[in-house]
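Following up on my earlier thread - several people asked me to post the actual chain instead of describing it. Fair enough. Here it is, all 116 residues.
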Amino acid sequence: MKRLFFILFVIIIFGAGCSANNKGEAGGQWNYQEGYVVAKDEANRQLLVVREKVDNLKNKKIEQILKESDPDAVWLKVTRKQYGSVEEGDHVKVSIQGGIDQSYPAQAAADSVEKK
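Reply from S.P.:
Thanks for posting it. Predicted structure:
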């Protein structure tokens, strides 16, 4: 009887561990180092970058993209050169300068932005 309880216990623990809903290979938290440009704000010189590629980007509003990407989106303050070097839809590698404001979407200043 003890053996049966032990086996059930192991099955329950194993089942709970396998059912975790994690994004990405290394867990659920995005490191903001790589993503896709989904919007550009010329007035504030910012790029909206999300973790996963967005299908039909041209047909979606920012609000819809943010809802679908929650919690993996960041507005990046960039230089004029960085702003001009990427377009919406580009896969980019990002280096963050300083801290990240963890609001949603997150906000940060980019040290570098490069097309992948």
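The mean pLDDT is 84. That should answer part of your original question.
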